[in-house]
Amino acid sequence: MKKFAIGLGISSVLLVAGCSDSEGSANIGGNESETTPEESTTEVTAEEETPEQEDAQLESPYQEIKEHFDSYELPEEGRLADSEFVNAVEYENGYTFDQDTKAMVARIHSESGPAEPTDGQNTGVVMGWLQDASAIPTPENRTKGNAAGQVDPILNRLQQIKELNDFEPLEQWVIETENSLMNFDEIETEQERAEVYADTYERLEKMSSLIQEP
Q: Are 18 and 143 in contact (CB under 8 A)?
């Protein structure tokens, strides 16, 4: 049996498709910058919100999805006592999850393929697929031209997410993202392709940040 870490497929396919004039750089959860809120002596009542609190509120559906992810806990059943990965939780069925983000980071492939995740693992697997889908070249480094199949790996990941996800706000987000990419290969102008790709990149980055942030 072989264990595969996810996150390598999408960026490599995009970078070799067509004629590329630049190297792709996969954005896989870069370090988040931290800011220290200014101290204030102003008392805030339960009915009031500070500007910082208002800014922290994400637009829909990202706020709802973040709350869904934040409330998710990895199941206790089936855990292995030790893991070959650092800061990870490994299970008897071959799935491994990041202990902090709770997203899947690897799974074992046997001759018959990977085992099905348990119901309790589904959300963590979805989070892993979302992180993998976001690991694509930046708009500046994407493959130029109308090379076929540039977004196929993203669409494949979105389809896998739909099969496991049962959270309605995320379902709608996936459908909207999927619809925007369906006819990518038929887009006639490079400018329009660039705009669609940039919009998809931004959506995926927003979603990935919900998983990366504590």
A: yes
